[in-house]
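Subject: Interface between my chains keeps coming out wrong

I've been trying for a while to get a sensible model of this assembly. When I model each chain on its own everything looks fine, but I need the whole thing in one frame so I can look at the contacts. Pasting all components below, labels as-is. Any help appreciated, I'm running out of ideas.
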Amino acid sequence: MSEETRLASVYRQDGPAIWRALLAFTGDPAVAEDAMSEAFAQALARGDDLREPARWVWRVAFRVAAGELKRRRAFSPLDVEPAYEHPDPIDHVIAALGQLSPNQRLAVVLHDYADRPVAEVAATIGASRATVHVHLSKGRRRLRELLEEDDDA
Amino acid sequence: MRDLKDLLEPLGDRPMPDRWDSIQRRPVQSLPEPHRSRLAPGIAAAAVAILAIAAIV
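Reply #2:
Try treating it as a single job with all components included. I did that and got this:
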Protein backbone atom coordinates (compact mmCIF):
# COMPACT_ATOMS: atom_id res chain seq x y z
CA MET A 1 0.00 0.00 0.00
CA SER A 2 1.43 3.40 -0.97
CA GLU A 3 1.89 6.07 1.69
CA GLU A 4 -0.76 8.21 0.02
CA THR A 5 -3.25 5.35 0.09
CA ARG A 6 -2.40 4.59 3.70
CA LEU A 7 -2.93 8.24 4.69
CA ALA A 8 -6.15 8.40 2.68
CA SER A 9 -7.33 5.46 4.75
CA VAL A 10 -6.36 7.26 7.98
CA TYR A 11 -8.22 10.32 6.72
CA ARG A 12 -11.41 8.34 6.13
CA GLN A 13 -11.11 6.32 9.32
CA ASP A 14 -9.76 8.78 11.90
CA GLY A 15 -10.68 12.04 10.17
CA PRO A 16 -14.21 12.44 11.56
CA ALA A 17 -13.02 11.85 15.15
CA ILE A 18 -10.09 14.24 14.71
CA TRP A 19 -12.45 16.81 13.22
CA ARG A 20 -14.94 16.61 16.11
CA ALA A 21 -12.19 16.76 18.70
CA LEU A 22 -10.61 19.78 16.98
CA LEU A 23 -14.01 21.48 16.93
CA ALA A 24 -14.39 20.86 20.66
CA PHE A 25 -10.85 22.12 21.29
CA THR A 26 -10.94 25.23 19.11
CA GLY A 27 -14.63 26.11 18.98
CA ASP A 28 -13.90 27.29 15.46
CA PRO A 29 -14.51 25.15 12.36
CA ALA A 30 -12.09 27.23 10.27
CA VAL A 31 -9.22 26.60 12.70
CA ALA A 32 -10.21 22.94 13.05
CA GLU A 33 -10.34 22.41 9.31
CA ASP A 34 -7.05 24.17 8.67
CA ALA A 35 -5.25 22.27 11.44
CA MET A 36 -6.50 18.98 10.13
CA SER A 37 -5.57 19.79 6.54
CA GLU A 38 -2.12 20.95 7.61
CA ALA A 39 -1.50 17.79 9.64
CA PHE A 40 -2.42 15.50 6.76
CA ALA A 41 -0.44 17.60 4.26
CA GLN A 42 2.60 17.37 6.56
CA ALA A 43 2.11 13.63 6.83
CA LEU A 44 1.95 13.29 3.04
CA ALA A 45 5.14 15.35 2.72
CA ARG A 46 6.94 12.98 5.10
CA GLY A 47 6.06 9.92 3.01
CA ASP A 48 7.35 6.66 4.41
CA ASP A 49 9.02 8.27 7.45
CA LEU A 50 5.90 7.88 9.59
CA ARG A 51 5.61 4.60 11.45
CA GLU A 52 2.25 5.39 13.02
CA PRO A 53 0.57 7.93 10.75
CA ALA A 54 -2.73 8.09 12.64
CA ARG A 55 -1.07 8.87 15.96
CA TRP A 56 1.25 11.34 14.26
CA VAL A 57 -1.65 13.18 12.57
CA TRP A 58 -3.62 13.43 15.82
CA ARG A 59 -0.60 14.96 17.55
CA VAL A 60 0.30 17.39 14.78
CA ALA A 61 -3.28 18.50 14.14
CA PHE A 62 -3.69 19.54 17.77
CA ARG A 63 -0.28 21.15 17.87
CA VAL A 64 -1.13 23.20 14.78
CA ALA A 65 -4.54 24.15 16.22
CA ALA A 66 -2.99 25.20 19.53
CA GLY A 67 -0.40 27.27 17.69
CA GLU A 68 -3.06 28.98 15.63
CA LEU A 69 -5.19 29.78 18.68
CA LYS A 70 -2.16 31.17 20.43
CA ARG A 71 -1.34 33.24 17.38
CA ARG A 72 -4.83 34.67 17.36
CA ARG A 73 -4.56 35.39 21.07
CA ALA A 74 -7.87 33.68 21.45
CA PHE A 75 -6.87 31.11 23.99
CA SER A 76 -8.54 32.15 27.18
CA PRO A 77 -11.39 32.68 27.24
CA LEU A 78 -12.19 31.11 23.90
CA ASP A 79 -14.44 33.36 21.86
CA VAL A 80 -16.73 30.96 20.06
CA GLU A 81 -19.75 33.09 19.25
CA PRO A 82 -18.57 34.95 16.14
CA ALA A 83 -16.97 31.90 14.61
CA TYR A 84 -19.59 29.23 14.72
CA GLU A 85 -23.05 28.61 16.06
CA HIS A 86 -22.87 25.21 17.66
CA PRO A 87 -25.96 23.11 17.61
CA ASP A 88 -27.88 23.57 20.81
CA PRO A 89 -27.35 22.49 23.56
CA ILE A 90 -23.57 22.18 23.44
CA ASP A 91 -22.69 25.83 22.98
CA HIS A 92 -22.31 26.23 26.74
CA VAL A 93 -20.03 23.16 26.89
CA ILE A 94 -17.76 24.57 24.18
CA ALA A 95 -17.77 27.94 25.95
CA ALA A 96 -16.90 26.26 29.26
CA LEU A 97 -14.06 24.34 27.60
CA GLY A 98 -12.84 27.66 26.26
CA GLN A 99 -12.40 28.93 29.80
CA LEU A 100 -9.92 26.20 30.69
CA SER A 101 -6.23 26.83 30.21
CA PRO A 102 -5.01 25.69 26.76
CA ASN A 103 -3.25 22.62 28.15
CA GLN A 104 -6.16 21.68 30.41
CA ARG A 105 -8.56 21.98 27.48
CA LEU A 106 -6.26 20.00 25.22
CA ALA A 107 -5.85 17.23 27.82
CA VAL A 108 -9.57 17.01 28.59
CA VAL A 109 -10.66 17.02 24.95
CA LEU A 110 -8.01 14.58 23.75
CA HIS A 111 -8.27 12.15 26.64
CA ASP A 112 -11.83 12.38 27.94
CA TYR A 113 -13.61 13.12 24.67
CA ALA A 114 -11.41 11.56 21.97
CA ASP A 115 -10.08 8.65 24.09
CA ARG A 116 -6.46 9.34 23.23
CA PRO A 117 -3.97 7.80 25.68
CA VAL A 118 -2.20 9.95 28.26
CA ALA A 119 1.18 9.24 26.62
CA GLU A 120 -0.11 10.71 23.37
CA VAL A 121 -1.52 13.77 25.12
CA ALA A 122 1.86 14.22 26.81
CA ALA A 123 3.63 14.07 23.45
CA THR A 124 1.21 16.62 21.98
CA ILE A 125 1.63 19.09 24.83
CA GLY A 126 5.33 18.42 25.21
CA ALA A 127 5.00 17.54 28.89
CA SER A 128 5.37 14.50 31.15
CA ARG A 129 2.51 12.08 31.81
CA ALA A 130 2.38 13.30 35.40
CA THR A 131 1.83 16.83 34.15
CA VAL A 132 -0.95 15.64 31.88
CA HIS A 133 -2.66 13.99 34.86
CA VAL A 134 -2.49 17.33 36.68
CA HIS A 135 -4.00 19.11 33.65
CA LEU A 136 -6.73 16.48 33.49
CA SER A 137 -7.56 16.72 37.17
CA LYS A 138 -7.66 20.52 37.24
CA GLY A 139 -9.44 20.74 33.88
CA ARG A 140 -12.19 18.30 34.87
CA ARG A 141 -12.76 20.07 38.17
CA ARG A 142 -12.91 23.49 36.52
CA LEU A 143 -15.20 22.23 33.75
CA ARG A 144 -17.55 20.68 36.32
CA GLU A 145 -17.68 23.97 38.24
CA LEU A 146 -18.39 25.97 35.07
CA LEU A 147 -21.14 23.65 33.89
CA GLU A 148 -22.73 23.55 37.34
CA GLU A 149 -22.71 27.35 37.36
CA ASP A 150 -24.56 27.21 34.03
CA ASP A 151 -27.10 24.79 35.45
CA ASP A 152 -27.71 27.06 38.45
CA ALA A 153 -28.17 30.15 36.30
CA MET B 1 -21.75 16.25 35.60
CA ARG B 2 -22.50 14.10 32.58
CA ASP B 3 -19.69 12.46 30.68
CA LEU B 4 -17.95 14.83 28.26
CA LYS B 5 -18.68 12.46 25.39
CA ASP B 6 -22.39 12.69 26.14
CA LEU B 7 -22.23 16.45 26.48
CA LEU B 8 -20.50 16.82 23.12
CA GLU B 9 -22.52 14.17 21.32
CA PRO B 10 -24.31 16.77 19.11
CA LEU B 11 -20.92 17.50 17.50
CA GLY B 12 -21.48 14.24 15.63
CA ASP B 13 -24.16 16.04 13.65
CA ARG B 14 -21.50 18.29 12.17
CA PRO B 15 -19.99 16.25 9.29
CA MET B 16 -16.32 16.51 8.46
CA PRO B 17 -15.77 18.51 5.25
CA ASP B 18 -13.98 16.33 2.72
CA ARG B 19 -10.77 18.14 1.82
CA TRP B 20 -8.63 15.21 0.79
CA ASP B 21 -8.10 16.45 -2.78
CA SER B 22 -7.00 19.91 -1.67
CA ILE B 23 -4.82 18.44 1.11
CA GLN B 24 -2.80 16.56 -1.49
CA ARG B 25 -2.00 19.86 -3.24
CA ARG B 26 -1.47 21.91 -0.08
CA PRO B 27 2.02 23.39 0.42
CA VAL B 28 3.40 22.58 3.86
CA GLN B 29 4.81 25.03 6.39
CA SER B 30 7.22 24.51 9.28
CA LEU B 31 5.51 22.89 12.23
CA PRO B 32 5.07 24.68 15.56
CA GLU B 33 6.86 23.01 18.46
CA PRO B 34 4.95 22.28 21.68
CA HIS B 35 5.46 24.83 24.40
CA ARG B 36 7.77 23.43 27.06
CA SER B 37 8.08 24.87 30.51
CA ARG B 38 11.40 26.58 31.14
CA LEU B 39 10.96 26.40 34.92
CA ALA B 40 12.62 23.04 35.51
CA PRO B 41 15.68 23.71 33.31
CA GLY B 42 15.96 27.14 34.95
CA ILE B 43 15.93 25.69 38.46
CA ALA B 44 18.49 23.07 37.44
CA ALA B 45 20.76 25.72 35.94
CA ALA B 46 20.46 27.88 39.07
CA ALA B 47 21.27 24.90 41.31
CA VAL B 48 24.35 24.07 39.26
CA ALA B 49 25.49 27.70 39.43
CA ILE B 50 25.02 27.83 43.22
CA LEU B 51 26.94 24.57 43.67
CA ALA B 52 29.72 25.84 41.43
CA ILE B 53 29.99 29.09 43.40
CA ALA B 54 29.91 27.16 46.68
CA ALA B 55 32.71 24.90 45.47
CA ILE B 56 34.86 27.91 44.50
CA VAL B 57 34.21 29.76 47.78
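Reply #3:
Confirming on my end. The longest helix of chain B spans residues 39-56.
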